[in-house]
Amino acid sequence: MSRKSHPSRRQLLQISAAASLLPLMGMARAQAALPQVEVWKDASCGCCKDWIAHMEKNGFRVRMHDTGNNAIRARLGLAQQFASCHTALVGGYVIEGHVPASDVKRLLRERPKALALAVPGMPVGSPGMDGPVYGGRRDPYAVLLVQRDGSSRVFQRYA
């Protein structure tokens, strides 16, 4: 007959401590799984910097190019009608303007056949356009899913 061994108190504490770290390890792994966002913007644009901070706060790593965004937007095939103050590339998609990180995460999760997400212009209340200088004002806007043929549809609305 074999004798069953029971874990010591010390072993139980170690197992418990390791188990308590599992949720944190899962969050770190989920954040590490987010691809890098490459952003082209004007060097002096404050709202672009605020959008980048929003993306970083939501787990994205960001690489910036302070070269402006008109040339890269055209090179990536996004029409001027969707233009904003910064253009990004993440996971093979173009991200134009003040798109919320939650919509970028949804795009990467769902992986639709599309070219881009875009928030044309600079709507007040969108990420990066929501600082104290705007006094809490929030204008309605839509995030557009842009197809490779230039057509678009609403991906998400914000009121």
UniProtKB/TrEMBL annotation:
Keywords: Signal. This is Uncharacterized conserved protein. It holds the Pfam family DUF411. It comes from the Bacteria. Residues 1-32 form the signal peptide. InterPro entries: DUF411, TAT_signal. The keyword Signal applies. The lineage of its organism: Bacteria, Pseudomonadati, Pseudomonadota, Betaproteobacteria, Burkholderiales.
